[in-house]
Amino acid sequence: MNKLISTVILLLSALLAGLSSPNTGVAIATVSLEEHITITTWNIENIGGDGRGFASGFGRGNKPLRTPAQLQAIADLIRDELGSTIIAIQEVSITHQVDGDSRCAPLDTIAAELGDDWEYFIQQVDDIPEGHDNLFCAYMWDGSAVNMLEVLPLNVPNLNLAGANLFDRSPLVGYFETIKDGHEGNDFVLVNVHMKSGQGNEENHLIAMTLIEHGLTRNLLQNEIKESDRIILGDFNDNPYALSQAGNQRYSDALYVHMAFKKYEDLVTEDFHSTRMDSNLTSIIDHILVNVSTRGHMSDVEAEIFLPNGGDSSTFAEWRQTFSDHFPISFQLRIENDDDVDF
Q: N or C: which end of the chain has fewer CB within 10 A?
C-alpha cells in the first residue's frame, strides 16, 4: 500500500511540475485562446458612402468619408480590442467593381492594415446603385484562421407587408470552416441580416426571420451543403426588451419565441442595455441567434459587447466620429475536428 501511495505522489508531482516546466515531458491538456475563433457582428454605419451620421442619438449629424487615420483606427479596433476572426458587417457601400466583383475602398484599406491574409466579400450586383440603395451586408475574415467555402445571397422575397418591406439589406449567407494546424476543422453557416428599420415593424421582423429560417435549408441544399451548425446574426432593428411609458412590453417578442421553438438561442440579452447609440441607450436591436448544434461548439454560451472607454457615454459621440453608432458584439467558437456531414 505504501508503495502505491508513493507512486501516486510521484505521478502528482510530475503533473504539477509539468504545469510550470514545459520541458518535463508531461503534457497537460488545456484550452487556449488560440483554439477559438471570434465571430463579430457590427453595423458599421455606412462605410464607403455619403450620408453617415443622420441616425438619431449620440454624435448625430452629417459626417464626411472616413480618413486613412480613421480606417487605421478601425483596423486597430478589430485586431487589438475585438480580436475578430470573422466580422458580419452591415451597411457597406460599393465604391467600385473589379472583374465584376463588388469592392469597397475603405474595406480595402482596413484589410490591408490587418494583413495579407484578410479578405472580404460584399453582396454582388450588376450595377452599383446610388444613394441609400448602395448599402449591403458583407463579410470580412482572417484567411489564416478560416476558409470561406461558399458565400451566397439568401433567396427570400423582400415583401412589403404591414406598410414596410422585410429587409433593409438582402441577407447574405457565409459558409466557413476553421483551420487547425494547417488542416480543415469544423464548419458552420452564418446568415448576415439587416431587417427593415423601425422597431415598431416587429410583425415584419417575425415574418422576415420565418422566411430566413425556412429558406436557409433549401438554399443550402441547392448548393449541395448540408450544414447543421447555423448562426443568424446582424441588425434586426428589433427590440423585445423595449418598454412603454407605463412599463409594459412595447413590442412583440414573437420572433424570439418562434426561434426558441426552432431551437435557436439569442446570445444578446436584456443585460446588454443598448447595442446602438440611441438617445436613451435603450436600443437592443443587434442580435446573434445560435442553434442547438452550434452551442455544442461553444465553451461559453455568451456574447460580449464592446463599449468604448469602458462604457463612458460621455465619449460615445466622439467614438462615433470614427467608428459607428452601433457597438460590435462578438462570441467564440471552439476550433475542433468536423463532426457532421456537409455534402
A: N
